[in-house]
Specification:
By secondary structure, this protein is an alpha+beta fold. 21% of the residues lie in helices and 18% in strands. It has a four-stranded mixed beta sheet with strand order 2-1-3-4, covered by helices on one side. A hairpin with a 4-residue loop joins strand 3 and strand 4.
Length: 137
């Protein structure tokens, strides 16, 4: 009788082996004339080039939208997108929002019901006070 191992394909987890940034493209929309885009214009002139040089894996698309508030839109590899309106923010606040979009996964925010989440099932199962012989009082 021959023994064979159970074949199981390993599930890839981001961060184990190689880290893949989830944000693939970022759209930056601004207006040349409106006062709400003043911080966005300063961000584009001073900080966008340095940020884009640090992150060559993200595609940046800068386009004007006349008479509209400035918007940041992050496109992710799972096909989702997130947009943040950055009207009346200064360039440092916009930089923090760009970093927030860069670090996001694109998934919707979920309510966590259990304190521990795991990909693997528990070996011992779920404990209940009704298991076993009970407690003597």
């Amino acid at each position: 009788m021959t023994l064979r191992a159970i074949e199981k394909v390993t599930v890839g987890q981001n961060g184990v082996g190689a880290f893949i940034l989830q944000c693939r493209k970022m759209d930056i929309h601004y207006c040349d004339y409106s006062g709400s885009s003043r911080g966005m214009n300063a961000f584009i002139k001073s900080q966008l080039a340095k940020f884009a040089a640090k992150h060559p894996q993200i595609e940046f698309a800068v386009s004007p939208r006349p008479r509209k508030h400035p918007v940041l839109i992050g496109h992710y590899i799972n096909g989702k997108q997130k947009s943040i309106c950055v009207k009346n923010m200064d360039s440092l606040q916009i930089l923090k929002k760009v970093e927030l979009l860069r670090d996001a996964s694109g998934e919707k925010i979920k309510k966590v019901n259990k304190p521990i989440t795991s990909v693997n099932e528990s070996v011992r199962g779920v404990w209940s006070p009704y298991h076993g012989t009970g407690m003597a009082v």
